[in-house]
Amino acid sequence: MFFMKEILYDFFFLQLNLTEKIIFILFLVLIFFAGIIFSRIFSTVNLKKERADAVKKSRSVLAGQFGEQIAPFFPDFPCNPGDAKFLGKPVDFIAFPGSAEGSEIKEILFIEVKSGEAEISKREREIKNAVKNGKVRYVEYRLPF
After folding, report:
1. How far apart are CA 26 and CA 32, in angstroms?
2. Looking at residue 78, what is its pLDDT?
3. In 10 A of CB 110, how many CB atoms?
4. Per mean pLDDT, which range of 32-36, 106-110, 138-142 is the poorest?
5. Is 110 helix (H, G, I), strand (E, B) or coil?
6. Which tens digit of pLDDT belongs to each residue from 36-72?
7. Is there a contact between 97 and 79 (Cβ–Cβ < 8 Å)?
8. What torsion do the CA atoms of 80, 86, 89, 91 make, to the nearest 10 degrees?
């Protein structure tokens, strides 16, 4: 570090001859461009990894969204597909078992569809707990006109 300080001092106070100044400037330019090249190579490698990760996540999200839409037609879906109404957020479906056949509705289902190892979100967990604790009510709203 002390050596560099001496060189800078000599350079700025004209104690280097012209050849030494040119070599010094070329050295600084070389270091500058080497840094640029190194950073571009490093960022390109990271960018490729980040893009691959983004594509993978995007595919997972799209597959999950597609799966949510067709879930009522898979075996073991908890009700008749005609009874389920897609919401998407904050739960995927609300279902009224028996409504498609015109029979009595004895329960209402809130259905959250998950694929793979996906877990429910904080908001979905809050809704699940509210239903479990009986904090559900029916509200009739009349328009003011």
Report:
1. 10
2. 93
3. 17
4. 32-36
5. strand
6. 888 777 777 777 788 888 888 888 888 888 888 899 9
7. yes
8. -10
The tokens for 139 are: 């509200």
Burial of 94 (0-12, 13-18, 19+ CB in 10 A): middle
Taking Cα atoms as reference points, which of 109, 115, 102 lies closest to residue 74? Answer: 115
- Output the six-digit token pair for 29: 């330019």
d(CA 56, CA 19): 55
Type of residue numbered 14: L
Strand partners, 86: 93
CA distances from 117 to 8, 30, 100, 113 (A): 60, 51, 32, 12
Q: Are strands 109-111 and 84-86 parallel, antiparallel or unpaired?
A: unpaired
pLDDT in tens, 94-138: 999 999 999 999 999 999 998 878 889 999 999 999 999 999 999
> What H or E segment, with its residue span, contains residue 84?
strand 84-86
pLDDT band at 8 (very low <50, low <70, confident <90, very high): low
Does residue 90 have a cis peptide bond before it, meaning omega lies within 30 degrees of 0?
A: yes
